[in-house]
Design a protein that fits this description.
elongated, 121 residues, mainly alpha
């Protein structure tokens, strides 16, 4: 389905962004001077950790939202299919009751065609 392809593309984009953030943080950690005071480094670590936690929360909430939407869509499609099948069955039953001989002739014709096709093999 098209929405599944879009979700896969978004997930791939998100993976690329997270890889980029990881690489940038790694470069940032390498460029910090070794003589930097510990309180500044601690604050920087806390800020980075907080930002990453916020990103993870947003990603998690988006994933839950997409999952709920997919579930609703699946329920709706299933309900529509059940309703369609039920209506088709009612129509067939109604036509059998109205025209039993026509229905019998159609069934016999289908049987003859099936027998003819199977006899050729």
């Amino acid at each position: 389905m098209p929405w599944q392809l879009a979700q896969r593309a978004r997930a791939a984009d998100l993976d690329r962004l997270l890889d980029d953030v990881e690489q940038r943080l790694s470069r940032l950690a390498k460029t910090l001077p070794a003589a930097a005071s510990m309180p500044k480094a601690d604050r920087l670590s806390e800020t980075i950790a907080s930002a990453l936690n916020d990103i993870a929360d947003r990603v998690g909430s988006r994933a839950r939202s997409v999952s709920r939407d997919a579930g609703r869509l699946g329920e709706r499609v299933t309900g529509d299919a059940l309703q369609f099948g039920d209506e088709a069955l009612r129509r067939v039953a109604r036509e059998v009751e109205r025209r039993p001989f026509v229905t019998l002739a159609i069934a016999a014709g289908v049987g003859v065609l099936a027998a003819g096709l199977l006899a050729r093999r």
